[in-house]
Each structure stands twice: as C-alpha cells, then as structure tokens.
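The freezer alarm interrupted the setup, so I double-checked each line after restarting. Inputs confirmed:
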Amino acid sequence: MTLEVRGGAWRVDGTVVLDDVDLTVPVGTVTGLLGPNGSGKSTLLRLVAGVGGSLPGRASGAGTVRWRGVDLLALRPRDRARRVALVEQDARTEVDLSVRDAVALGRTPHRSRWAVDSAADVAAVDAALAAVELTALADRRFGTLSGGERQRVHLARALAQEADLLLLDEPTNHLDIQAQLTALRLVQGSAGAGSTAVVALHDLNLAAAHCDHVVLLSRGRVVAAGPVADVLVPEVIDPVYGVTTTVLRHPVTDRPVLAFAATSPSALPSVPA
Amino acid sequence: MTQTTEPRRGGTRPGPAPARAPAADRAADRTETRDVAHPAGGQPDAPVAGAPGRPDGRRRPVSAPALLVGAALLLVASVVLAITVGPAQISAVEVWRSVASHAGLGTTPLTELRDAIVFDMRLPRVLTAGAVGAGLALAGAVMQSLTRNPLADPYLLGLSSGASLGAVGVLVLGVGVALPAAAFLGATGALVATLTLAGSLGALTPTRTVLAGLAVAQLCAAATSFVIFWSSTGDSYREILSWLMGSLGGATWTSVLIAGAALLVVGTMLASAGGTLDAFAFGDTSAAALGVDVRRTRWVMLTGVALLTGGMVAVSGSIGFIGLVLPHATRLLVGARHRLLLPLSALAGATFLIWADTLARSVFAPRELPVGVLTAFIGAPVFAWILRRRRAAS
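Predicted 3D structure, all chains:
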C-alpha cells in the first residue's frame, strides 16, 4: 500500500535526466523531494503523473510506477487522472477564468463529453475551495489573485480532482513566507485527510518543518531517502549541495532547522554518483 | 461560380426592400446584444465585458441554457427575416408558406415564381451563410484554444486560402476528386505548411504563426488566381475575387448539403470537446495531468478544423475574419469556458454571416459586394484591437 517507483529513467534528446530511480512513499504521508537544480525532481513527478509525453524534446522514459498496487502508467490517461493529481510549478494562463472555473477544471476526468456539472462536481469544487480557504474569493478572476492565492487555486484544482495521490512541484516558489507556510500547511492537511503528497521543494528548512519523509536526488539518482531526521544531516547534505551544514532545533516547533555555510571549492568532497 | 440573379421589381430602381436591410441589420444587432448580455431583461448596466477593467474583477454569472436558447431563437428569426430582404417583396408569412408546402404540411402554395425566389434562391443562400458562419466561427474558437494564440483564425493562418486552392483546382482543372475533399486537402496542406514554417522560425509564438500563415495564404491565393486566370474563359476576375474574398452568391441546395453536413458531423464533434479544451487553460502538462491525451487531442481537433474549413470554403470561397471576430466577441460576453463558448460562437457566427451576406447583396443592389469585403471591414479593426490588447498585456 505504497507508491513504488522502480527503475524510473528519463532521457531528453540523449541527455539522462533520471537514471534508474527507485522510490517508496508510504501512504498518508507528506514526502519531500529534494535536490539541487537539475537533479530531476520535476521530471520524477511528471514520470509518476504519466505526463512526460507532453514535454518538449525527444523524450523517452522507462520504469514502473505502482500506486496502491495499481500500475499507473498502464492506465488510460483519464483513469490515471482520477488517481493522481499534479500541481505544476508556476502554472500560468492567458485565459480569463474565475477562481471557481479554474478549480472546476479538476473535474475534467470525472465528466463525460456532453455532461453539465453534476451535484458531485459542485460539491467537490465547494469542498476544495473550502479546504484551501478560498470560498470567499470563488467569483474573483484568477488573474487578479496574488501569487499565494493562485497557488492555493492550483492546490484546490488538484483536490477537486479527488485523486488520492497529490504531486506538487515547488508549490512555494516565488511566494512570501506566510504564503509558503500556508501552502505547505494545506498540503499537510490534505495528507491528514487521507491522501498522500509528494512535494518537490528547494528550501530544505521548509522540508524539515513540513515533511514526514524526504528523498534527496542528485544528478538524476536517489542519494538518500527516509525520515527527516535521518536524511537532513550534514553527512548527506554537504556532499550533494557543496555546503557546510549545521543542524539546530527550532525553539518553538522543535523541528530541525538547518544553517548553511559556504564550503571552499578546494574542500569540496566528491559527489557520490 | 455563377452569380445568382433574381427577378427584380421595377428594373434598377432600388425598391424599398434593399433600404430596409441595414435597418433590419442594426435592429438584429441590438437584439443580439440585449439578449446575450441580459437574458433576464433588466440591469442595463450589469457588467458585459467583464474582468480585465473592473477593479473587483467580478463577473455576474449568466445562465448557460438561457443564452443558448436565446441565441438559437435569434438565429431562426434571422433566417426568416433575411429571406424577406431583397428586390422582390416577400413577407415572413410567405417564407413560412413556401417552406411548409415543400415540407408537405399542406398550406396554400405560393406562385411558382415567388416560391422559386424563396425556396431555390434565398433559402439555400441564407442557410449556406448560416452554416459557413457557424463553421468558421467554431474553427476559429477551437484554433485559438489549441494553439493558445488569440490571433488564430482559418483565414489568417492560410487554411481558407489552401482550401480555396484545392476547390478551384478541382473545379477548373477537373481533377477527379470531390470538391469538399479537395478543399479539405488544401486546408490540411496549408495548415501543415504554416505550422512547419512557423516552427522552423523558432518557438510557435502567435506572431510567428500569423506571419507564416500570411506567407502561405499569399502563395495559395496567387496559385488560385493563376489557375483561374489560366483556364477561365470569360469572367475570370469576378470568379477570382469570389474565391479570394469569399461570396455566397453561388449558393444552391448542394452548398447547403456540403456545408451543413460538415457542420453537423465535424462541427458537433468539435463543439462537444469544450471540456477538453478547457483543460488546456494552464498549458499542455496541466491538461495531461487532468487526463487529456494531449497529442491525440491536438491531432484530432486540428484535423477537424481543417475538415470543417474545407467544407465551408468549398461552398463560399475564403471569407475572412469570422473565425477571429466572433469567438472574441462571444468571449467578451460569456467568458472563456469552452463548453459554453463553442456552441455560442457557432450560433453567433451563423447569425453574423447571415446578416453580413444580406447586407452585402442588398446595400449596393443590384450590384453585389463580395461578403468577404464586408467581413474584412469589420475584422481588420478587431485584429488591430487584439494586437493592441496583447501589447498592453505583455
């Protein structure tokens, strides 16, 4: 009863982006996907969501993705979208939509061609708006929202999809501190309500504060995976990021807090490959 | 293409009928605006254009079924009224009697001449105008969404010119292919050429695509003109003009059949895909994550657009800007939800082209303006306005 990726691989135009990735994510948890730029976080999320084919370039993927025993990549796209929801990094639109319309897009895999909105559709959209605390803004235009509010709309769309696996690609990008904490609190809330979330994050401290498990990627491979306390330690982080890390305790939440110092280039240890 | 001529009362003296056309047109426009913006009738100052300029960014919700029914009723009324416009005075009652007697409903038939004016001349022309208007508007709306390009339009991207070339090739050279099939092949060839050319210039930006479409359209137009000029015996210039600018002057029941069948089969398929197109709002990856097979959808829909354009251009020549103007106008009224936008654009396009063609054939009667001249007069400023808006947005 887990998310299992075996032999996940991805090449674009001959460049290896993901190389033989194995991954196990327990159900009902928030798992942080960490790693430097270009380590393959976004690609791994897309591989799991089965949307790699829409990326530009000549791409080829391999590997199996099993979610609660079901081979996700063997499902029809529509059936897969009822199990897995992906929130992209910084998704934009030129279409003039209301907040409610943008969230209602999440009902696409549940709706047949000619159908009008069913009671279940309306209820799912209402519940999703309530879950991200945007009910009051339902009739606003999407284009008039702040960055944090837009990110919550994207999360609500994924919730309206009623998939039990949520994949989020850097949901805190370009957000102010309060909006970052809100976004991750809402993700944690959805995991508490029964779904499982995999969140790609840049900020290791956000991961330390909000994730149950973390997976550290480097150059398309998994370097370490496990509980926060096991992975977010200097011995693991320092060689991947090329920094010197000190782990502290948050005086209020008692979660780990990481402080970084630059490592001089000559002192750089070799990256495990 | 042959120009239809009607028996005229009182020779070249413009009768009262032509003078009524513009007034009827304006009245129809007013009705349309009122019906679409305020289905409940009241609240004349309720937000129409909606979002961008409004500080609170709110839009009054409108009932989709009411809009569709209103637009459909307007279209039916337009068909009847447009048939009454012309040199020979025909009343709406006579239109009904003619249609009813042909449908075997046992009403007193009209005189043979008047019946022929209604049933053999004006009715097929108005129905063709409606089908072509609906088809082009629908094709434009789908293309704008699929290519995320607000300037996409079967005319601007060269599809219409390609379809014209295909159709003319069959008509003039006597190539043994059916007319709509040749128009479809021409439209497909032009679409592929435009996208390939635009893609070879770099990323498929709206501006690059339109520039590539311009080049393809000009080439196809030149080839069309050349084929007609080279093979035509007498009146080649008028014929060239009616293919390049578009004209419904040659509409017959065969035209109704071709355009109607294309609209019914392909148009219905496209119009039913509104939910799928909505899923593209946040881009391809987002659509894929919502369960849309992105490549297959794009391939099927663009083929559908080429088929539809081919069917329309085969009977009318390349009438421009319908696919650009009507979807944008409809979007201003009802927003960008494709499940509503697509059917409503089609209904609005049908009504629009019926009145544009009525105007084109009556305003300078007995001379007939190619209807494409009229749609271009309306469409070109709209094109400029969209460009300006895009510039302001970026």
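Quick read of the result. Chain A has one domain: 2-267.
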